[in-house]
Amino acid sequence: MRVLVTGANRGLGLEFCRQYLSRGAEVLAACRKPASAAALCELLALHPGRLRVLPLELTDERSIVELARELDRNGDALDRLINNAGVLVSGERFGAVSAEALVQSFRVNAAGPFLLAQALAGALARGVRPRAVSISSSLGSIAATQRFGTPSYAISKAALNMATRQLALALEPRGVLCFALSPGWVRTDMGGPEAELGVDESVGAMIDFLERAGPEAAGGFFDRHGSPLAW
Ligand SMILES: NC(=O)c1ccc[n+]([C@@H]2O[C@H](COP(=O)([O-])OP(=O)(O)OC[C@H]3O[C@@H](n4cnc5c(N)ncnc54)[C@H](OP(=O)(O)O)[C@@H]3O)[C@@H](O)[C@H]2O)c1
């Protein structure tokens, strides 16, 4: 099984790499700065030949296209795309929310994952039981939002949910299953040290669900255990 993980150098992305490697998969670890991805270098030493580190800047369309070309050049198949990379602008206050924060969040969290899945459609179509999963957030649920907070992030994750539904419909004829997952509140740089879950627990549950999910999951939004979340 070949798996591509974005935001692979730390946090949930790094743990996706670890767990898929320990399941015997070949992992393509995409990150902004491969040369300084120390944790991935350690994994490389542990899993020679099964881990490749590739550059990816999600706000740069050329970077996305180049990554997809790399796979297409060799006619490689991709079985799993984990659209994990994301950004959260903290400390936003109403009255001082900037256009830059809104636009940058949208580019990283919604446009980038959509464009990447689009660019990788050919490789995914060649995959076995191919799936493209968006790591979203309960903060992107419009129905669950009851207070003002992290607007750039919340708006961009709601957009990611729609991007995922659009991808599910576009890719279904090619046999690619797409859905969005919320990892829970997890101890990473983004989640902070007070978060309730460790990366191992969150990612373990997400992989269990994403590996067993069937066609009924197409275009859906789920918690890490596979229970549906309100849009
Ligand atoms: N942790 C939580 O509690 C939580 C809860 C709900 C949802 N999530 C979602 O889970 C995913 C992973 O979160 P995390 O907690 O692991 O976050 P994290 O520790 O902050 O890691 C974010 C990752 O995204 C990468 N990234 C940021 N901007 C990028 C860009 N422009 N191009 C490519 N990569 C970029 C970062 O790369 P650099 O190292 O180069 O910055 C890093 O690898 C995110 O989508 C997040 O929204 C997390």
Annotation keywords:
about 230 residues, alpha/beta, seven-stranded parallel β-sheet, globular, binds NADP nicotinamide-adenine-dinucleotide phosphate
How does this structure look, described?
There is one protein chain. The chain is of the alpha/beta class and 231 residues long. The protein has one domain: NAD(P)-binding Rossmann-like Domain (Rossmann fold, 3-Layer(aba) Sandwich), CATH 3.40.50. The protein is built from 7 helices and 7 strands. Helix 2 (38-46) links the parallel strand 2 and strand 3 (51-55). The longest helix has 21 residues, at 99-119. It is globular and about 50 Å long. Residues 6-7, 9-13, 31-33, 56-59, 84-87, 108, 135, 137, 182-183, 185-186, 188-191, 195 line the site of NADP nicotinamide-adenine-dinucleotide phosphate.
Q: Report the C-alpha radius of gyration, rounded.
A: 17 Å
Find the count of extended strands (DSSP E, 2+ residues): 7
| Biggest sheet record | 7 strands, parallel
- Averaged pLDDT: 97
**How far is the first residue's CA from the last residue's CA?**
31 Å
Number of structurally distinct domains: 1
Please give the count of helices: 7
CATH superfamily, by name, is: NAD(P)-binding Rossmann-like Domain
Strand proportion: 5-15%
CATH architectural designation: 3-Layer(aba) Sandwich
Oligomeric state, counting identical vs distinct chains: single chain
Ligand names: NADP nicotinamide-adenine-dinucleotide phosphate
What's the CATH topology label?
Rossmann fold
What is the structural class?
alpha/beta
Low-confidence spans: none
Provide the CATH top-level class: Alpha Beta
